[in-house]
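As noted in the main text, all predictions were made from sequence alone. Below is one such record, for ADP,ATP carrier protein.
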Amino acid sequence: AVSTVLCSPLDVAKTRMQAGGYKTHSSGYMVYHCLRDILSKEGLRGWYRGLAPALLTVPLFWAIYFPSYERLKHRLEAAGHKHWQPQSTAQGVAQPLNKGSQPEQDEADEVLALAHCLSAVGAGCVADVVTNPFWVLRTRLQTQVLHRADEHYKGTIDALKTIYRQEGFLAFYKGLAASFIGLSHVAIQFPVYEWLKRQARKRNGGKERPQDLVLASAFSKLVGSAIT
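Prediction:
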């Protein structure tokens, strides 16, 4: 919630620029110009348009995503490969019955990577379907100043009612296909994250240290962002 509030001005500026509201040659100047223009024309409130849906959606998305990911992950790990079976550990992660040869271990790692990739994408699809209506609300509220004044919403509830009345229920799922495409990020991030956790456990005798999890999370996020 704190990061959502702090990043709201940049989020509004990004959405406005994506909607074609600002066009300059320099991307850095574009952001500065957009933020300054919003502040001068709309006041501080302009930086926080769409904040209410965002404050609801961000925690809701992750509250759905992580349980879905864990459930899918354990099911796919259990069914993934003949050398692997669900075995309870302190971390709740399926472990190999034996290390076997290096080719077998490599194959098992590939199976796990595929399981984690599918789990990440599957969980993302579930979370996207549930939260997409709120993202539509946020985007409409952030970009409404680009339209005529008589088309502006009075607030989040008014936007919800107006969109449903004028465009129907399916309007809340506009952009869902693009959201699914955006899941390519987690399809890379989470397999890398899980692999780094396994390597850390091997080095630490099966234990997970908080600092290892932080590093794995940060590096996997970096890799996912760099590739996608």
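Confidence is low (pLDDT under 50) at residues 85-90. The first strand starts at residue 84 and ends at 85. These features were considered when defining construct boundaries for the mutagenesis experiments described in Section 2.9.
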